[in-house]
Amino acid sequence: MCLQTVLTVASIGMKIAEGVQANAAAKSEVAYAQAQGRLARQTAAANAQRPLEEGRERIGRFLARTGQGNVDLAQGSPVDITAKMAERAQRDHLATLHGGEVQAWESNIAASNAKARGRAALQGAVIGAGMSLLGEASRENWFAPSRRTSPHLTVGFRVPFGVPGTAGF
Questions:
Q1: How far apart are CA 114 and CA 3, in angstroms?
Q2: Taking CA 162 as the corner, what is the angle to CA 158 and CA 163, rounded to the nearest 5 degrees?
Q3: Residue 59 and residue 42: Cα distance in Å, rounded?
Q4: For residue 160, what is the DSSP state?
């Protein structure tokens, strides 16, 4: 094996090591993105309770003030206003949850992209290493038939088949 072949094999090892390293980095990125997605959902769930609580407080204050004015709270405008306040609180609650889901979705997309990049880096390194090895094999003529001959055939005279004037013709 010549020096060039040794250097090629070392280069192949480095290419594969780079691919493995890139894949490991991508796996870390995947774990981080997935954690970000979980955190976004948890944060949204916690923050989504605030609009409901604030809506209940507003409704309570409104009903207390309206009740002090001797208004019938069971019908008419107070009921409509209370329903509108509850609807707004519910809408804010759902919008906050939706925002968390959107952030989680974005994080999952980032995780999928990182996973694909890592897989592609590893596959590219292995394929590149294989191609380098095949290139070196062709330059060094690794697959050519051996030119060694048997010591028994090198001694004496040998007549090829099909030559005129021999017994085989």
A1: 38
A2: 65
A3: 27
A4: P
Dihedral angle, C-alpha 120, 125, 131, 132, nearest 10 °: 160
12-55 pLDDT tens trace: 888 899 999 999 999 999 999 999 999 999 999 999 999 999 99
Q: Whole-prediction pTM value?
A: 0.63
Neighbouring C-beta atoms of residue 149, cutoff 10 Å: 8
Per-residue pLDDT of 99-126, as tens digits, reads 999 999 999 999 999 999 999 999 999 9
Tokens of 51: 């609009």
Reduce the DSSP state of residue 162 to 3 states and report it.
Answer: coil
CA 82 – CA 62 distance, rounded (Å): 8
Side-chain-facing half-sphere of 105: CA atoms under 13 Å: 6
